[in-house]
Design goal:
Strand content: 5-15%
Number of strands: 16
Mean pLDDT: 79
Radius of gyration: 54 Å
Largest sheet: 6 strands, antiparallel
Length: 665
């Protein structure tokens, strides 16, 4: 082969290897082939020079290819950052590209934990050890701790034998468990120069010894810079979202407060207008119920209702307003059956109102809001709101402000009531001392004060201990407050004329219970009536006064009752002396039995008492066998009960027998 042809062929072969991207060792085979075919020394020298040039070109191409791949990866990373949606996804992408470009077995990224004061594994790629994935490093510990402390990259071909790093048991155990040997770590820097801040570190590691080139260090630094930007951008976006959320929340609060202020202003205007137009406590309760969409009741200081339960517009037909459930009491102190209303509900209202006074705010009690109506520290009453257990701040303040308006109205009502009561008291005094002097004038004076003396009224007379007697008149005013009734002091007692009612005993017991609560000491109350007209009312007062004296004699202090409930004492005390009624009430069961069976139980009872309880004398008077007397007395006991022969009951039976005998003669 001619010389030029031989050299040209080998040179062409080198070009073909370059074009094919063959490995570097294939280029040395060209010179070997030329030597085999007997190329001359000059030709061999020229081929070897060409081979060296081809290897340099090959190296440059490989370097360019690597640079191109690195740039592509960096551009892809930049694209990911531009479309940043999920920080974790971006960090995983960076770590995966670091592992791919450097051709390492694993790559990972650590971030600082500011609360714990150390760093932790945020993202790993290629890791198989759970111990390594949960590894935590203190500042300055291990290769990663040194990177974070110095803000400089560090590489080691064999970490386990490298004495430049502060080895710890936990770090060495994690590295050993993962099987890592060669490690390259670079800092995640924000900013440049001395002002840069390390916010983490990026690592690439192999499970075999390896020396990392400067280009590989630079590449990993570039990826770390992108990771730092991603983290900083994500943090900025998070901060922006938080700021926007806080701004939106602040705007909502401002709008809510503005609406609350507007509503409070409207509510204040409405309540003020209501008071200026002469509205009453019930009108305030209705307005507050409508404003708060709940049920509102106003109670006095004793826990008894001053108003019916007012209901909001969308709660018509809702539940009652008394704390503790149900209606505590009607305005007269008597329930629908004529007996006393439950005191437990009133006590619950008082306890809740005291809690409100102590805190100076409305309190939630058994699902209902209670706010005390105060004049200074004096308890005038309370407002109870039900149906709104979730009462918020603005509405709660509105409810509390309404208690102030209620306090003003209660003070006004009390002042008016005290003035009217003094005038009515003069009327009552004249009525009791001289009912026949000018009956028509008394009726006219009563009509001017809103009292129709010609209509039937109950009359109650109350008394208490001398040490608390001065409280009784005020308690009576408070008890009758808002009912259109009247009370007045007379002869060491207090006379009350409640509106309505037909059961003097029930009214007396209800008044005794509530007045005892208001005075704080036992109050005894006697009732009479109903009576109409000045003379009848004066007589009813006299009967009630006699009944009151009898209650004291009987030791029934703090109780209530009427003459009709005191048996034969009632006959003696009563104005009309209802003899027939007393006889029928006492002997009625025996009279009915004799009439139905044709027996002589009443005659036998009269003979028994007439003979001083002697069975022998009674059987002689009756002309029957003694066993017959015993049998008849057993029947009397079966009808009247085992206590028929007690001294008190025996006295009533003997009095009834005498009165019957007189009526038959």
């Amino acid at each position: 082969m001619p010389k030029n042809t031989s050299v040209a062929a080998h040179l062409r072969r080198l070009l073909e290897l370059l074009a094919a991207g063959a490995p570097a060792e294939d280029f040395g085979a060209v010179a070997t082939e030329a030597r085999r075919v007997g190329a001359g020394a000059d030709d061999l020298a020229e081929i070897e020079q060409a081979t060296q040039a081809a290897l340099r070109v090959h190296s440059a191409l490989r370097q360019h290819q690597r640079r191109e791949a690195e740039l592509t990866a960096l551009f892809d990373t930049a694209g990911d950052l531009a479309a940043l949606r999920d920080l974790d996804a971006v960090l995983r992408s960076i770590v995966r590209r670091a592992r791919m470009l450097l051709g390492t077995d694993t790559a990972y990224l650590t971030l600082p934990d500011e609360e714990a004061g150390d760093t932790f594994m945020r993202v790993t790629d290629g890791s198989v050890s759970v111990l390594f994935q949960n590894l935590r490093l203190q500042l300055g510990e291990g290769l990663g701790g040194l990177v974070a402390q110095t803000a400089r990259p560090y590489a080691t071909p064999d970490y386990r034998t490298d004495e430049r790093f502060h080895h710890t048991h936990s770090i060495d155990a994690g590295v050993l468990d993962e099987g890592l040997v060669a490690i390259l770590g670079v800092p995640l820097l924000l900013g440049s120069g001395s002002g840069g801040k390390v916010i983490g570190a990026l690592f690439a590691a192999d499970r075999t010894p390896r020396t990392f080139s400067p280009d590989e260090v630079a590449l990993l630094c570039s990826l770390a810079n992108h990771a730092a930007i991603a983290i900083d951008t994500a943090k900025a976006m998070t901060d922006a979202r938080v700021a926007l959320a806080e701004l939106a929340e602040a705007n909502a609060v401002i709008r809510e407060r503005s609406a609350a202020m507007q509503r409070a202003e409207e509510s204040h205007d409405r309540l003020s207008d209501l008071v200026l137009r002469g509205g009453d406590v019930a009108d305030v309760a209705a307005a507050v119920a409508d404003l708060l969409q709940g049920d509102v009741t106003v109670f006095d200081a004793g826990g008894w209702p001053l108003t019916e339960t007012a209901r909001g517009a969308d709660r018509a037909g809702g539940g009652g307003g008394a704390v503790g459930g149900g209606s505590a009491h009607d305005a007269t102190g008597v329930d629908g059956s004529g007996g006393p209303a439950p005191a437990g509900a009133a006590a619950a209202v008082v306890r809740a109102a005291e809690d409100s006074r102590a805190t100076a705010h409305a309190v939630l009690h058994d699902g209902r809001w209670v706010c005390a109506a105060l004049a200074g520290q004096e308890m005038l009453g309370s407002l109870v709101l039900s149906g709104r257990p979730d009462l918020d701040g603005p509405d709660r303040r509105l409810f509390e402000r309404s208690s102030v308006v209620t306090s003003l109205l209660l003070l006004l009502r009390r002042s008016v009531a005290e003035t009217e009561n003094r005038v009515r008291g003069d009327l009552i005094t004249d009525l009791l001392t001289a009912p026949d002097r000018d009956p028509a004038g008394l009726v006219a004076r009563g009509r001017n004060l809103g009292i129709d003396l010609n209509r039937p009224h109950l009359v109650l007379v109350a008394s208490t201990g001398a040490d608390v007697r001065e409280r009784l008149a005020g308690a009576a005013v408070q008890y009758l407050f808002g009912t259109g009734s009247v009370s007045a002091e007379h002869a060491g007692t207090v006379m009350l004329v409640p509106a309505g009612g037909t059961a003097p005993g029930g009214a007396a017991r209800a008044a005794a219970e509530q007045l005892t609560h208001l005075v704080g000491a036992p109050v005894t109350v006697a009732g009479a009536g109903p009576a109409a007209g000045p003379r009848a009312l004066a007589d009813a007062h006299a009967e009630a006064a006699r009944c009151l004296q009898a209650l004291h004699v009987l030791g029934r202090r703090g109780a209530g009752g009427s003459a009709g409930e005191l048996g034969f004492l009632g006959v003696l005390l009563g104005k009309d002396h209802d003899v027939e009624g007393f006889v029928a009430a006492t002997l009625g069961p025996l009279l009915e039995y004799d009439e139905r069976r044709g027996t002589q139980l009443v005659r036998t009872l009269a003979a028994y008492f007439g003979c001083g309880g002697s069975l022998t004398r009674a059987k002689e008077e009756l002309h029957v066998h003694i066993n017959t007397v015993v049998q008849r007395l057993d029947r009397i006991q079966a009808i009247l009960g085992p206590g028929w022969n007690s001294p008190e009951h025996a006295l009533e039976l003997q009095l009834a027998l005498r009165l019957r005998l007189l009526s038959l003669s």
